[in-house]
Write a structure and sequence with these properties.
The protein is α+β, with helices and mostly antiparallel strands and 244 residues long. Helices cover 40% and strands 22% of the residues. The protein is built from 9 helices and 9 strands. The chain is globular and about 70 Å long. The N and C termini lie far apart (61 Å).
Length: 244
């Protein structure tokens, strides 16, 4: 509801049902229910028919001063973007993102600011990201898969996936992190295949669901050390040995 309200407030002409359907991937009927709830929830909602004979909903300025998205979502996004900019040498962008994050924190209440600074979930996700740089195009990833992986990393929770083929049996993985590069890999342990922590191509994960089952991570494992051993992201323990 807050995301819809922000859309209606940010666009001068407001939003119509078709735009709501496209934004949230919902049915026309659900979009109608959302606009009804919008009118019920916020006092400054104006509904007008445009020149295209489509009704548009707009929230007048000042109606969104208090309701906002959870601080941790904004904070985590800015922190991740800042780290990636710094890792790529874009120091000016990294400083700008850091300043924007600090400005947002400064406008929070003391309680919300403390929660954002001490957000263990955000830190867990940030520590689980390791970047491997490689030129060239990147593989597109399904947002639902990434959301499930992120949710599992926050727990940490086990992750049920179907890998490579729709006919393949489902696997239960214990995720440790993500390697970002030319291809993106999930670093995880397959519970059915022993203690070895291995890489799974995210673009070949066809479905993913974060389970309610938590697990104890191997404290000796390091994502940074794992990433340092990855030539082009993928790695095979059998390939390591003396090199002349």
């Amino acid at each position: 509801m807050i995301r819809l309200a922000q859309m209606a407030a940010a666009r001068r002409s407001g939003v119509n049902l078709d735009e709501i359907v496209a934004k949230f991937s919902i049915s026309h009927r659900t979009a109608q229910r959302m606009t009804k709830a919008l009118e019920t929830t916020f006092a400054n909602v104006a509904a007008e028919d445009g020149a295209d004979h489509k009704r548009r909903w707009r929230i007048e300025p000042g109606a969104l001063d208090r309701p906002q998205l959870p601080p941790r979502d904004r904070d985590r996004g800015l922190e991740i973007a800042g780290r990636e900019a710094g890792a790529e040498g874009q120091l000016r962008h990294a400083r700008a993102l850091a300043g924007l994050r600090e400005g947002l924190l400064a406008r929070l209440s003391n309680r919300d600011a403390a929660r954002a600074e001490a957000d263990a979930d955000a830190e867990a996700v940030l520590q689980a990201l390791a970047t491997v740089t490689r030129p060239g195009p990147r593989v597109s990833l399904a947002p639902k898969i990434l959301d499930a992986v992120t949710e599992a990393l926050r727990g940490p929770f086990q992750l049920r996936v179907r890998y490579k083929s729709e006919d393949a049996p489902e696997r239960v993985l214990e995720p440790y992190g993500v390697l970002l590069g030319h291809r993106t890999y999930l670093v995880a342990r397959d519970t059915a295949k022993g203690d070895l922590i291995r890489s799974f191509r995210l673009d070949q994960i066809l479905s993913a669901e974060a389970l309610d089952e938590s697990f104890a991570m191997d404290t000796a494992f390091s994502m940074q050390r794992f990433a340092a051993q990855s030539f082009g992201v993928w790695q095979d323990p059998a390939q390591f040995g003396p090199v002349v």
